Hints:
This protein is α+β, with helices and mostly antiparallel strands. It has a single domain (3-169), classed as CATH 2.40.50.140. Helix content is 17%, strand content 31%. It has helices at residues 3-22, 57-60, 72-77, and strands at 53-54, 81-90, 97-98, 100-104, 122-126, 132-133, 140-153, 156-169. It has a 5-stranded mixed β-barrel with strand order 2-4-5-8-7. The chain has a two-stranded antiparallel sheet with strand order 3-6. A hairpin with a 2-residue loop joins strand 7 (140-153) and strand 8. The radius of gyration is 16 Å and the shape is globular. The N and C termini lie far apart (36 Å).
Amino acid sequence: MTKASRRILYTAAAMPLMATLAGAGGHPGNAGKFPVDMLPSDGLPVASVQDTTEVGWRILAELNYRTGEKTDTLAALEGKLVKIPGFTVPLEDWASSATEFLLVPYVGACIHTPPPPPNQLVYIEMDEGKRAKMDGWNPVWVEGVLTIEMTQSVYGDVGYTITGHRVYPYEF
């Protein structure tokens, strides 16, 4: 099988999941609901439910990573508490939990293969003292404060940074 054939096969296999995550997933009626077992240990959400904005990968793709130009929609999200679905990529080998990691739109996206473009990579740095469970095969929600900035690092170019408050399993 040629490299191009393999890439097409992998892309076709990932399309249904990418389509779900691209629209931020979930039924609109469930937006902003916190399952009781997903609340922080003190029993209160980090911010009120109304303050959390659900953001899909289509919106993140609106960042022009060559010029840094952002749409009005993206500009309005900067500095806000957001909730984004995706898959975790630990920045440490064999990490089962981490304080920093990448959030990517589809399973298997990583820095070792051609990575997604910078507007499809989010660098997450958890709040001090918090760790997130790393399970790259299962989707998660990441909640935190969004910063839009192009960052170049040994991990590749990344278009977004989130100061992570919570990471929990993705559910519709």
